Amino acid sequence: MRIRIYRLFICIMGLLFLVTGEVAAKGKKKQEVKADAPAPQKRSVKYDRLFRGKKVETKKGLLTIHKIGAKLYFELPMNLLNREFLLGTTVSEISNNGNVLVGQKASEPLHVKFNIIDSTLYMQEVTNGTRPNVYADEVGMQQAVAKSTIIPLMQAFKIAAYNRDTTTVVFDVTEMFLGDNKRMDPFDPYGKTAAFGLLTRKATLNKSLSYLDSFKAFEDNISICSVLTYHEVLTRKNTGYRHAEQVTMKVNRSMILLPEKEDMMRWRLADPRVGYFVSSRVHMGIDVDRSTRTYFMHRWNLEPSDMEKFKRGELVEPVKPIVFYVDNTFPASWKNAIHEGIRTWNKAFERIGFKNAVQSKDFPRDDAEFDPDNLKYSCVRYAPIGVENAMGPSWVDPRTGEIMNASVFVYHDIVKLVNEMRFVQTAQLDERVRTPKLSDEVMHESLRYIIAHEVGHCLGLMHNMAASAAFPADSLRSAAFTRKYGTTPSIMDYARYNYIAQPGDKGVGLTPPDLGVYDYYAIEVGYRPVPEAKNAEEELRVVQSWIAAKSGDPMYRYGKQQVYDEYDPSALTEDLSDDAVKAGTYGIKNLQYILKNMNGWLDAEDRDYTYRIDMYRGIANQFAGYLKNALLNVGGYYLNESFVGDGRTAFSVLPKEKQKRAAIFVMEQLRTLDWIDAPEVTKNLTVGTPKSEILVKKFAKELVNTKRVSLGYYRDPKSYSPKEYLDDIYAHVWASTIKGRNLTKAERTLQYEVVCAILKRIQIPNHRLGDGKKRRQTQVETLAKEINPVLPVQGFGFQYYVTNLSNDNQAHLWHGLLIRVQKLMESRLNGGSRETRSHYGFLLEKIEDVRNWK
């Protein structure tokens, strides 16, 4: 009984415990709910308190922007955390456009994303041009790469509030748009005020003179305008130059949302045999025994709107065409040429199946969303500044190379450049250009070409400086040939106008083509869809088959722009044809013809000689260009991107005959240069050193340089040797002396400058340049060129250096030449005119004085 009573007691107590526990639990739950319940209310209170009683301006779009008093806040949807953006800087207005152009995007856009860690919101920099962008294929390697290349934090923001349902986060971004952020520097380091890069700029933001101006929010982007004032100081190293000014500018910061991974354009792998701007990533793979770099083209994302029609060979419009908006501030007479230049590229896109791929529109006047300073819009802008240039930069999605925005800037004085080029290069044949003010017809021809060239850059194309070398010189005197091909196979070359055509040539084309053969080919390589390819590697194999089909044809050859120094005479700027000597000979005849007739053509319109001063300077510069182009053949070598089966070697020395002919041409021109002084023209122009003396001095120093010849001879013993080159200098610089003739002024100047250059060349101590301290530090030059071994002949981008070393130990040859010259002049000292004898006597004393120095 006791046991039963005890068990009953235990059961009752257990039941009571369970009931009590359940009641306690219920009570506890109620208390927990009570504890959490105020949170949304607190959030609501914090969010509301941010705006309560304050002057607030709000814009809603991709994200919501609030201006509360003098502060700016972003309200970022939580679903945009970890989404990637481009954040770019554009100048909308400025007090001095020599610092940066209106509409210019001088600094690369930032590739960023936002993330919340603990209670702080961070902006992270996803990619950066100076930081390796690495990827791998295998899972384990990918994990290692991820740990080794984490995304750095760029800026921290204190979270001000969440909205009521915590779907957005609010943070203060005032400092981001009013701070002195050098990563979003609005200044152009190569602007006119900075002497196109020669001056060093220090610009300090004055926050007391800076403020937030306006802001906009749209479905896929936002824009923030700030007025920023800087104290700018420009200096030049090792000089006393200093320039200071206050610069105020309105700066637009645009932020656009980039596509998600599944919507990204498939990159097209690049091939260095076709000139595209590229981005790259480092690949950690095991298919080869090293890490490699993957290069991909910069190009627009053009997809056929109807793939089935496209496959059948029908023209289709792209899903998203390339649209350029043309500035309404351009002179009215320029507008048609600009639109035509843009749309010219449709011819190339039609060849690969697209219609209306490239479109142009004037700035819309009734579209509230349109903003030319926004990254969303690609524009052609007018720059009212005295610079003779135009340019076509673009911005890309760094993950794929997709061009997101492009701009063309047309500086006002591009018309001055056009006028001078047309006169100096074509006035021998084209009566329309013999005037200080070109007709609308002529200007239209030239502007259309300039715009098409710059839009080519906006499509991703680099300069192709080898294009014009595909044409024989005499072909450019043929009416039929020039009507078909223009002056070059590519408008991406710097082959301007037909300076080869002679006064009697009838019907010859004088301008570059609308599009050249290479331009059609390059667009195919970059943009023709390959629907059968499953990935970028399969696509590359197809694209390279197109390239292989053109291998060996000079019309399709790509030659890089040569920066710092020029090695390949077939890939030069401002040249025509495959023969610099023949082209220069024709060009010089034309310059002499123009100079002879210039007064008769211009007396009526150029009453104060202002125009002739510029044109005379242009004639001298054009002549110098002809000599430079020829002289670069001496010791020159052809450079190619070479693949197995191409039929082209990466490096080949010019044939001896071509080098020798070019050297003799230059020396003969310098010996007979008196014509360029043209007293009947120059007597009314500015007073200065005769052009003949300036040019002879310049090229005499270039003649006495065997580094290039030594390099070529080192690589190919059958080529032009330094000894043969010096023998030719002796035979042609002293040709009149050898024959016992009196010397012209040009010949005297040439001989003097060559002798001085030889003395410096063989490093006789008391003839070195500079003071005693500098003399002690002087080193004998023995290398063909200061070489950066990291940059080989082959690869992507510009041609900077040639990775090749060669000793230039020719001092004994120069010394031998000096002795030959000395003995020759001694033998002629008592013959010829008084001026000739005095010249020999002076040079002999100079040589003897140096040789006898102790």
UniProtKB/TrEMBL annotation:
<dbReference type="Pfam" id="PF17148">
    <property type="entry name" value="DUF5117"/>
</dbReference>
<keyword id="KW-0378">Hydrolase</keyword>
<dbReference type="InterPro" id="IPR034032">
    <property type="entry name" value="Zn_MMP-like_bac"/>
</dbReference>
<feature type="domain" description="DUF5117">
    <location>
        <begin position="110"/>
        <end position="305"/>
    </location>
</feature>
<dbReference type="Pfam" id="PF16313">
    <property type="entry name" value="DUF4953"/>
</dbReference>
<dbReference type="GO" id="GO:0008237">
    <property type="term" value="F:metallopeptidase activity"/>
</dbReference>
<dbReference type="InterPro" id="IPR033428">
    <property type="entry name" value="DUF5118"/>
</dbReference>
<protein>
    <submittedName>
        <fullName>Zinc-dependent metalloprotease</fullName>
    </submittedName>
</protein>
<keyword id="KW-0482">Metalloprotease</keyword>
<dbReference type="InterPro" id="IPR032534">
    <property type="entry name" value="EcxA_zinc-bd"/>
</dbReference>
<dbReference type="InterPro" id="IPR033413">
    <property type="entry name" value="DUF5117"/>
</dbReference>
<keyword id="KW-0645">Protease</keyword>
<feature type="domain" description="EcxA zinc-binding">
    <location>
        <begin position="437"/>
        <end position="737"/>
    </location>
</feature>
<dbReference type="InterPro" id="IPR024079">
    <property type="entry name" value="MetalloPept_cat_dom_sf"/>
</dbReference>
<dbReference type="Pfam" id="PF17162">
    <property type="entry name" value="DUF5118"/>
</dbReference>
<feature type="domain" description="DUF5118">
    <location>
        <begin position="46"/>
        <end position="93"/>
    </location>
</feature>
